[in-house]
């Protein structure tokens, strides 16, 4: 398989993903920014693959999504978690759904907390083996930190959801699973993020201090350490859910 971590030119702290199976000429684009639509199309042409799926791991509040535009231009299926409520049609994803692009198999993990519709993607390269290899953890679990739970209000409730998602779903994965987050140091989507955009479940369990807290202390900690809201957040959310 191939995998590209794309640091967005206008915001290098934000990370998108392009992955797929060159042998069967199929690929998946994840959390595409509006400015990067042409880049994904160019990458697909260079690698000789079709973009089969375009996924937003949640309705974003910090950037304008290019996912819908990319899906329209390429004929790909645009996916969100089933709990998302945009004004346009999309392919709903459910917890534990599995889909594939050639030898790249993806399991959907619904991980509410950053937002109610947040998902992570557990990826297996079937050309290498049947065990999952890495987790695209996006804004749920970062390297050295966790996602912020306050962008849509109900902060305490969402922080509790975040704790449960991380502890009941992500930290139960094998320690060798690699973590590929949706942001690194400098992002407004969390506090204390590492500048290194890669870790493992085992390393985070051993060294991510927030993950060692009790449920009560976790909620208190993530609500104390909140960066400013993204600039023009309400306008961005509205643009990302509008039909056109």
Tell me what the structure shows.
It is built from six helices and 14 strands. By secondary structure, it is α/β, with parallel strands linked by helices. It has one domain: Metallo-beta-lactamase, Chain A. A hairpin with a 2-residue loop joins strand 1 and strand 2.
Number of helices: 6
Taking pLDDT < 50 over at least 5 consecutive residues as the criterion, the unreliable ranges are: none
Termini separation: 34 Å
What percentage of residues falls in helices of 4 or more residues?
25-40%
SSE run: EEEHEHEEEEEEEEHEEHHH
As for the number of domains, it is 1
CATH level 1 class label: Alpha Beta
Largest sheet: 6 strands, mixed
- CATH superfamily, by name, is Ribonuclease Z/Hydroxyacylglutathione hydrolase-like
Overall mean pLDDT: 95
Based on the coordinates given, report the CATH architecture.
4-Layer Sandwich
* CATH domain topology: Metallo-beta-lactamase, Chain A
Beta-strand percent range: 25-35%
Instruction: Please report the total strand number as a whole number.
Output: 14
Structural class: alpha/beta
Which shape, going by the Cα principal axes?
globular
Spatial ordering of strands, largest sheet: 1-2-3-4-5-6
What's the alpha carbon Rg, rounded to whole Å?
17 Å
